[in-house]
Every structure is written in structure tokens, then in C-alpha cells.
Amino acid sequence: MERQAEEVLRSALKSYGDVFVAVGKAGTQACPPAGEELRESLLNLKQRLKADASASLIVETEQLVEAELQTWGERAAHFYQEKTNEVKEILTMVAQAASQVGDRDQRYAKQFGKLTERLQATAKLNDLTAIRQSLAASVAELQNCVTKMAKDGQDSVAGLRAQMSVYEARLDEVERIASQDPLTGLMNRRKLELQLALLATRNRPFSIIYIDLTGFKYINDTLGHQAGDDLLKQFAGELRTAFRTTDMVGRWGGDEFIVLLDADFRDAVTRVERIQKWVDGEYLVTTEAGQRKVQISAASGIASWQAGDTPTTLLQRADEAMYQHKSQMKVDSKRGSDGLGKIRSQPA
User: Fold this and answer.
1) What residues contact 213, with CB distance under 8 A and at least 6 apart?
2) β-strand 207-214 against 256-261: which pairing, if any?
3) What backbone phi and psi angles, to 5 degrees, belong to 293?
4) Alpha helices in the chain (DSSP H)
5) Which of 74, 144, 166, 310 lies 20 to 30 angstroms, CA to CA, from 151?
6) Which residue in 231, 237, 303, 312 sits closest to 272, CA to CA?
7) What confidence tens digit (pLDDT) does each residue in 226-274 have?
8) What does DSSP assign to residue 31?
9) Least confident of 25-29, 149-153, 232-236, 274-278
10) Which residues, in sequence order, are CB contacts of 287 under 8 Å at separation 6+?
11) CA nearest 260: which of 199, 204, 186, 183?
């Protein structure tokens, strides 16, 4: 009889503990945010119920379970009350939006007014079931109003789209003007700086060519600004034609030009040496006294992007390389050579 009593006690304690587990799972399913803590607490209480558990321990465990269930109930009630309040806030915002839409379109002001009143009344309800039923009744009316407004507004939408196309075209034109040199039509300094900064962030090889016309100041001073502007426009046209459409050619300022190439240093040197023979030479410019032939050449400096380079350091190396080339051109000119010199790069 004693062994049978012990077996009954162990079975009862096991069943009691299994009830704890079942209650914890049910609490988690009913309210996940509050149920997880309940489940863990009940599992810990189950571990207290051993075969030799005393009567006082069982009573104490029962009291602890009751306290845990009460705490869970309070947390679950608080959670669902917050959710109810959130739903009510959403309904209030929907009501306000419906009211504003009705105010903007007087044709539907009466319908939206009724809908607003219904939603505001719904927001005051405390029963979620009643809120759902009231909201469902409002959906059909809201959908009907929206459908009618969409149908009536098709012409307005088409007009807005047409107007937006006009605005987009104007914005594109403004952007083009803002990024274009007004004299040569090439990229201006602002656009080049933006493109250079963008290329520097890609961490991929690219090269910059710094070009400076030699003798331009003399031509500008002796033949006049008209001849100087004409020369710059012609040189810019030749420069743009000589490079690929994917290369970014721009005027840096005065008689200085910048080209951004998606190429390494060796490729950039090869292309510049070939292109320089194309753009250097004789130009026919217009002056106040008529047309005049002028001989022009350009000094070039190349710098290729290296890890750690900034746009400023890259430009500085290209500028220094250009001045080296210009100095070499002067030496070659005194020696009676072609004056083209050798394109050089300023080392990092």
C-alpha cells in the first residue's frame, strides 16, 4: 500500500507538472509577448515538484502558479489594451484623413462627413469585435467614394502627368545648363568635380588628363577676345571628337581642360599621344580684322587613381605632370623639334 501510494504521488506530481507545461504553451499561444515569460516560470516551478516534495512545498508551488497566472493575465490585458488603443488611433487618423479629403472635394463632402462620423464613433468603442464590425461596414462606403473620385479624377491625373512631364523636361534642361560650360558646351568645372568625386568612391582604376593650351594668352591679347573664344570653341570641339562618348570631357577654366577616362595610366598615355596629334595644329579664328590662322599646341598631364587618392591629390598630380610637359615643350621648341614633347605623369 505504501509503494502504491508513492506511485500515485509521483503520477500526481508528474501530471501536475505537465499541467504547468500545457498552461505555459497555451499562454504563449494566447499572448506571445506575455506568454514566453509565463512558460519559463512554470517550467521552473515544475522542477520543484519532485517525488519527495512535501505538502508545504506543493502548497507554496500552487500559490506561485496562481501569482504567475495573475501576472500573465495583467500583462496580456495591458498588451491587448494597447493594441486596442492603436487601432482606435488608426481609426481616428483615417477619420481625419477622410474629413480632409472631403473638405478638398466638396462633391463628396457629405459622404465623407458621414464616414468620418462613423469612424469617430468606432474609435470610441472598447470591444474589438464591435470595432471590426463597424469598420467592415465603413469599408464598402469608403471604397465606393474612392472609386467615384478616381473615375472623376482621371482627367485631372492625366493633366497632372502632362504637367509633370513639362516640369521634368524643364528640370533636365536646368540641370544641363547648370553642368555645361556656356562657351564650349563641354562639362563645366562643377560637373567635373562631381564626376571626379563619384569616380573616387568606386575604388576602381581611372585616369585624369589635365590639358593646358600653350600660347593662348598671347593669341587672346594680340588678336582679341573674340579670336580667343573662337579658338577655345574649336579646340573643345576637336577634343570632344577625339575622345570616346563614354569619356568625360570638360573645361576646367580659362584655357584649361580636364578629361576623365575609364582607363589605367598606360592606356591613357597611349590615347593622349595619339589624340594630341589630332588636336594640336593650325586653327582658323575670327578676329575683328577678319580670319587669321594660328598655330596651337597643348601640354598634357596624366594621373591615375591609386588607393588612398582624393580628388584633390589626383588633380594636383595631373597638374604637376602638365607643367612638366609644358617645360619640356619649351626646351624642345628651343632645340627646333616639333614641340610636342613627351607626356609625363607626376609620381605619387
Assistant:
1) 231, 232, 235, 255, 256, 296, 297, 298
2) antiparallel
3) -90, 135
4) 2-30, 32-48, 55-104, 109-123, 128-152, 154-178, 189-201, 216-223, 225-242, 265-279, 311-334
5) 166
6) 303
7) 999 999 999 999 999 989 888 999 999 999 999 999 999 999 998 888 8
8) -
9) 149-153
10) 223, 224, 226, 227
11) 199
Given a contact cutoff of 8 angstroms between Cβ atoms, the answer to whether 307 and 210 are in contact is: no
Question: Angle at CA 205, nearest 5°, toward 203 and 208?
Answer: 115
How far is 313 from 80, CA to CA, in rounded Å?
A: 61
Residues sharing a CB contact under 8 Å with residue 119, sequence separation 6 or more, in sequence order: 91, 92, 94, 95, 98, 135, 138
Query: N- to C-terminal Cα distance for the chain?
Result: 97
Query: In angstroms, rounded to a whole number, what is the distance separating the alpha carbons of residues 242 and 276?
Result: 9
Residue bearing cell 521634368 = 168
pTM (whole model) above 0.70: no
CB 145 within 8 A of CB 112: yes
Q: Among 332, 221, 215, which residue's Cα sits nearest to residue 283?
A: 215
